[in-house]
Amino acid sequence: ESDTASEISFQFNKHKKTPSIGSHSSDMASVSSVSGSVLSVYSGDFGSVDAQGTVEFALDYDEKNREFQIHVSQCKDLAVVDEKKGRSDPYVKTYLLPDKARMGKRKTSVKKRTVNPIYNEVLRYKIEKMVLLIQKLNLSVWHNDPLGRNSFLGEIEVDLASWDWSNRKLNWYMLKPRSLSAINGVDHRGVMNLSIKYVPPGSLGPKNPPSGEVHIWIKDVKDLLQLRPSGVDSFVKCYVLPDTSKKSYQKTRVIKRDTNPVFNHTIVYDGFHTEDLKDACVELTVWDHEKLTNHFLGGIRLGLGTGLSYGISVDWMDSTQEEVAFWQEMMSAANEWIDGLLPLRSL
């Protein structure tokens, strides 16, 4: 049924509050530093201003330096955010979609007290032309608030596959309201097909198994973000939180050039008491493998989603309703495989 079967002990001292569980934040720095940047394009939007006005910009690709360049010239007739003072402090922000975290955002400077800001700035992305052509450019205008309560002023989205690259001139574009998918928070990262099973201690005979076991069968993932023309080279990481030691860490093999990878990989964690299921969380994350660094694609967290682990508040106990229901079904059906198809999220 599986290409690999791994058995790992679930070990940590749940009574030692500071060193073992508290060290989670540093152990997970590699995940949190990436997933923390995988925020919505519209994160921090506190305004309810209607989009209006225009933005002037030009696009170019520097073949010699392999660099995508966005020349942001100016905006006109932007919405007024602070009506009492009759002011807006606008700046322009860009992302390359679908994976906002991969290339990151770029921003112009903030121009204060104007609805007709002039920037004349170039935002740059180091990226191969072939990869660029499967991206979309999201260019949005924002009002900068000193307290971080920024207001969305309008956006434009450009499909770079159909862009006329001979057009290097500055052109005006009408700023549009947010797209319906963005307003609804749609951030499709793919879905994971998996099964899980809990085997209580002694349930298969005297001292068999000697401790409880959680079995995780990662079958396949569908509709991953395509980061390059050839597809994506993906693998899955697994931890049982709060244990982030090397003993807890497991991963699948890398499936190359496939946005619908089949892993068929089984992991077994032992050392579980039944009561541990209320405080533990299985974190499965999907990554794109590259030589220098791996890129986070999405993940799921299986647990009760209480926000607490052994009485301590933790940010990773944040399972969605679907994930909680999946975990609860496993807890209530000992020794039975529970099948699930769960959407990946940005964690």
TrEMBL record:
Keywords: Cell membrane, Exocytosis, Membrane, Repeat. This is Synaptotagmin-like protein 2. GO terms for biological process: exocytosis. GO terms for molecular function: neurexin family protein binding. Gene3D superfamilies: C2 domain. It comes from Tinamus guttatus. Pfam families: C2. It comes from the Eukaryota. It is found in: Cell membrane. InterPro entries: C2_dom, C2_domain_sf, SYTL1-5_C2B. One of its GO terms (cellular component) is exocytic vesicle. SMART domains: C2. Residues 51-173, 188-317 form the C2 domain.
